[in-house]
Structure formats: structure tokens, C-alpha cells
Amino acid sequence: MGRRLGACACCGFKGEIRARGLVHACYARHRIKGTLSQFPRTKKQKPAPPRLDLNPAAYGSPAEFALACLKARKTVVEAERITGLPAHVIRRLVERQPGWLLGADGRVRVFDTSPEERQLA
Ligand SMILES: [Zn+2]
User: What is the CA radius of gyration of the chain?
Assistant: First the structure.
């Protein structure tokens, strides 16, 4: 990671930001005092997968339930276990979703398909 310059989130002093929006001195001080948690991490964090409702009644069909599992970053095997839908049925469902591709890890990757591409297909 490159050096970042900015104003310290703690004291406003302009300098090299160490982490959490703090300059070195403030970062060290808060780390020693154990008060770093006051300052949120600034590194980009992976967006959390959508929360999965495990109640089948929340979905219109077992297929929708299985797709919701996959969207929540579950593998096909996990989706099979959760929904009771056979894995081969789940795989066929994935094949029918535009832009969805099953990875070697059993998780779905979603590719953006632009409206123009969809019209051509
Ligand atoms: Zn500071």
C-alpha cells in the first residue's frame, strides 16, 4: 500500500496516515491505550454477502430458496443441504441465470450482462 497523506482523524494534524485515518503518533498512542476501535478501519472491506433467510416459507419456491443460498455465497453442496433440492437441479438453475457461472469451488460468480448483450443473446 502506498503512502497516504491527509489530516489525522484524531488531532487534525496533516501528515502521513498510518492506518484508520490516523497519523503515526496518534495511531501508536491509541494502540497503546487500546482505544483504536474508536477509529473505523479505512481499508476497503469485502461487502458482506446478502443475509440469508433460512426459512423456506420466505421464498416463493425451493428454486428461489436455492438461488438465494447461492447469492449468499453458499456452495451448491451447501445449498443442497439447506434447501433439500438435489445438486443437479441447483446446477441447472444456475445455468439458466443470465451472467451466472459456477466456479470450481462450487460457488456462483455473477458477471454483469449489459442489456445490449442480453438482446443479442
Ligand atoms: Zn492525530
Answer: 22
